[in-house]
């Protein structure tokens, strides 16, 4: 796969200056701040962060799934369409026909009391004016697409293994042939062997059908293996974006470095890995300067005063870190 | 090896039976599992969900009663001695750490309460007051720098801090063996290493044995010297962690290691057939046979024995020696990991 080094020109999804704020008893929580990215046709963008980094909130904002209490500003544009302004029929068409979602924990994403077939039929009939029979006719093909024997169409979720359930969820996500599939930790609850086969399946389907993927996970190595570009989030902000291979082999942001260093590879030889001390800041009172400052080993005095902005450190590679402010910008 | 290992299991088995009015079915969750943990040694038990690894942990913690087999602590058969319920002495020596530090701590009690209770029950305060003993274990898990930690409730702590409290509670009993069941799988990547390092330093400094149950081969390689690979209730491969993960021998271990994402490397090819999880194991024979890319005719009918490949390295697979010959005469009648 040829990694795209620039922001794609033929962007399916463009997010610009996205901010999401939730109300809480302790005041507003700034869950997502000034997040911008674009996903090209057929591209996989990996959005990586730890719990509380805001990565799932970004996914929910893109799908317009945020609760009404959330304040969402900025721009989300899907093939030129203003997503944040959609309502009624337009929103219904955007969801699932434009962008679909694969969630973590396939058991919870499926209805335990109805069969796989009826759940696929439900999705199709909720969006298209077709008869139950017509909708049903497309079930075998969809199941075959995700390598499930169409004879299992009458099965209930509990009769299937975790991997098969996740394949069904993917089949449902692809039922209306969306241009973009948001996958929020699609394999986190699964064993590594099953995870591998599901990810291989997604790669194959993407090549066959040409959809784009926003792949969200805490597992940097898993995402780096599948995505062409990576976006690393910390405390609601993007701290580094760039070509996946480059970000994992020569990370620039100290947080990305720390994240890579704390993942324990099977083929490593380190005797001892040092932990990343501290914890992310409280987002009800976001720090004025770099949010990573208290945990950063390379922090200099003054880095906690001003917010570092994303700046280019290489072709298509941007990092938000004060350490790179003096370095010459490569374009 | 000098003297008896700290912990040894011999032919440990657990069959769960479920009965309804009309039917009776049973699952062999753990089947003939034998291994040993030495004092100050970390042994990893890896496998997928449903492989029985957590049941092994619960059997050793005496939360379940084995259907067959022995558990020896310092050479003493504890199942025979304490048939129905583990003695307080055993519970004092063997402590368990669970996966979810939220559900393993009582949300209505403070950190101090949890630790004082453990100090009191196990009588480990010695010359110290109980509060001093609590402070000491908080220091041991590097939580003493958190202001007012003893008066905090679990929900006020981060996941990593909660798991440290769970470790402190185990330490307050002054255990000889800690059984940790997926202690880091619910935690963020950046705090996992801290927990593993803490367990590692406790093991080194106090000679505590550690049985680390995990699905993560990276953690097993990093934190343990010896790894056991479990599948459908059976241990299929056993060896020094770095060897076993660098050069897996059993087809299942190969599949497991090959499925892990590699940083910037080329993905190892994985057999399509082998990836198909959830296939029922044959009643007799190797449980991995239905998925095995290298399946032989006898795999469906005969359970392979152990084949020793090197000192402390064995595999249970028909591809290695007919019927699994066991060249080491000292090992007859029992299977020890070392």
What does this molecule look like?
The complex is a heterodimer of chains A (331) and B (338). By secondary structure, chain A is α/β, with parallel strands linked by helices. Chain A contains eleven helices and twelve strands. The N terminus of chain A is likely disordered. In chain A, the strands form two sheets. Chain A has an eight-stranded mixed sheet, with helices on both faces. Chain B is α/β, with parallel strands linked by helices and 338 residues long. Chain B is 29% helix and 22% strand. In chain B, strands 6-7-8-3-9-10-12-11 form an eight-stranded mixed sheet, sandwiched between helices. A four-stranded antiparallel sheet of chain B has the order 2-1-4-5. Chain B is globular and about 65 Å long. The C terminus of chain B is likely disordered. The chains are: A alpha/beta (331), B alpha/beta (338).
Report the β-strand fraction of chain A as a percent range.
Answer: 15-25%
Segments of chain A where pLDDT lies below 50 for 5+ residues?
Answer: 1-6
The biggest beta sheet of chain B is recorded as:
8 strands, mixed
Order of helices and strands of chain A: EEEHEEHEHHHHHEHEHEEHHEE
User: What's the overall average pLDDT of chain B, rounded?
Assistant: 88
Shape of chain A: globular
Which characteristics define this entry?
heterodimer; A: alpha/beta; eight-stranded mixed sheet; four-stranded antiparallel sheet; 31% helix; 22% strand; B: 338 residues; 12 strands; 29% helix; globular
